[in-house]
Amino acid sequence: MKYIQSYDQKWTWFVSCILLGIYIFPVSAQEKKPTDLFSDIERKAIENVVRDYIMKNPEQIINSLQRMRQQEESKKQATIKIRLKELRSELINDPDTPVGGNKNGSINIVEFFDYRCGYCKRVLSDLLKLINSDNDIRIVFKEFPILGPQSKIASKAGLAAWILDESKYQKFHNKMMRAKGAITKPRIFKLAADSGYNVSDLQKTMETPRIDSLLEKTSNIAKALDINGTPAFVIGDQIIRGAVDYKTLKNIISEMRKS
Predict the structure, then answer these.
(1) 79: Cβ–Cβ under 8 A, 6 or more apart, which residues?
(2) Which residue intervals of the chain bear CATH 3.40.30.10?
(3) Are the CB atoms for 78 and 108 separated by under 8 Å?
């Protein structure tokens, strides 16, 4: 009986180590695995104990996994919050990044967008309504082409337009966002011409290293903030992923002003 008791204690201890160690102390490929310390019979017994425990206590496993995910998410959000503070200046003060609304406004709304994104197009009217109703709003347009080659060409055109003539950018941006269907080069250049740009100058500027550098910079910022879709907004200390309407934007801004 004494042997059986110590035998059971041995398995109880080892199972506890496995159930905790799987998540807390991962074993590297170079380290000796715990199972190498046991015979085939002992290993089989361990597997049976673990299987029985899981079958009898599934809620414990689920709860443990949920707690682990919650802890990981909390750590992730804390890291993003720190990065957001570190990247604040790059987000709102980059002179090569297009700006709309009141350029001297105290409320900054940073939008990561793609010209081919349907949800981004849908948000445009609410953003325009917002800057027309509140003259203290400053919108920072982060060109974030994630939907393929056409998106990248369109973003290059947008950045080139800003560099060439800031005063015409908003008009060009609006035309691009309202365009339906494929955004081809001929169509982009026509919209640029309609907005008052010299197409030849736009083409040349689009192909400069400066444009590629700007796109890469925005991509790196998005990655650091765990932004991988469009639209996404940074307003104050908040990162909002997905489309938002006028009312939601007004409420967020109202809360910012209160604080």
Answers:
(1) none
(2) 89-258
(3) no
| pLDDT tens-place string over residues 80-113 | 889 899 999 999 999 999 999 999 999 999 999 9
* Element containing residue 241 per DSSP (H, E): strand 238-241
Virtual CA dihedral for 48, 50, 56, 59, nearest 10 degrees? -160
Residue 196 has which token pair? 């008052």
- From CA 125, how far away is CA 127, in angstroms rounded? 5
**Which CATH superfamily, name and number, covers 89-258?**
Glutaredoxin (3.40.30.10)
Cis upstream peptide for 231 (omega within 30°): yes
H helix or E strand, kind and range, residue 107: strand 107-113
Distance, in Å, from the CA atom of 64 to the CA atom of 5, rounded to the nearest integer, reads 28
pLDDT, tens digit, 9 for 90 and up, residues 158-168: 999 999 999 99
